[in-house]
Design a protein that fits this description.
This protein is α/β, with parallel strands linked by helices. The chain is built from 8 helices and 7 strands; from the N terminus they run ααβαβββαβαβαβαα. It has helices spanning 6-16, 21-33, 48-54, 92-103, 116-119, 129-138, 148-156, 176-184; strands spanning 39-40, 62-63, 66-68, 75-77, 107-110, 124-127, 143-144. The strands form 3 sheets. The chain has a 3-stranded parallel β-sheet with strand order 5-6-7. The chain has a two-stranded parallel ribbon with strand order 1-2. Helix 3 links the parallel strand 1 (39-40) and strand 2. Helix 2 (21-33) runs parallel beside helix 7 (148-156). Bound molecules: zinc ion.
Length: 186
């Protein structure tokens, strides 16, 4: 699908797109608050770290697919896949569960189809667009968000005494299959 080289495509992206400035604010706040922040993507991925660097955010880790190779022979690799999940390149369920093991509660912010697998296992979910519809269908509690200022403010003012329940019985497989089945049946 991709005809350019990664460098050509990257130049195209950096010329036309920039990181949402409210994400830059969220990142600065999270750093001050001692909270880990990561970008998790199931897209082509090659543009994310350079876009973050262009916004002064090269310290924000990126969990995503990687694209490399010469023109016409690009290969997409999935270093953050789940060993049993065939539904995702980057498994957002795994990203959330790994983050929870390392740091405890996880707030997940998303808007797309691949985000539902992370939303299902996060303690706080911020959803809009397609992800909001998927959360409704799957009965996942979520807050609507427009930009990252709302996310920052909601996480900053959360009541730490209210610890969301952890999901019981963590699955060995990506639960996305279950939701996909549900969708096909409705
Ligand atoms: Zn998965």
């Amino acid at each position: 699908m991709l005809r350019g080289t990664p460098n050509e495509m990257l130049a195209f992206v950096l010329d036309r797109f920039a990181i949402d400035p409210t994400f830059v604010d969220l990142s600065a706040w999270a750093q001050d608050a001692g909270l880990d922040l990561a970008v998790v993507s199931d897209g082509f991925g090659f543009y994310i770290a350079p876009m973050l660097a262009a916004a002064g955010l090269s310290h924000v880790p990126v969990l995503g697919n990687s694209l490399s190779g010469p023109r016409g022979e690009l290969r997409l690799e999935h270093p953050f896949a789940h060993p049993e999940c065939i539904g995702c390149g980057t498994c957002k369920m795994r990203a959330v569960l790994d983050a929870r093991l390392r740091r405890g509660g996880v707030a997940f912010v998303g808007e797309g189809q691949s985000d539902r697998f992370g939303a299902l296992f996060a303690d706080l979910v911020f959803a809009k667009d397609r992800l909001a519809d998927l959360c409704e269908a799957a009965g996942i509690d979520y807050s609507q968000w427009r930009d990252f200022h709302q996310v920052r403010d909601a996480v900053a003012t959360r009541d730490p005494a209210v610890t969301p329940p952890l999901v019981a019985g963590l699955p060995a497989r990506c639960p996305g299959w279950t939701i996909a089945d549900h969708e096909e049946g409705t």
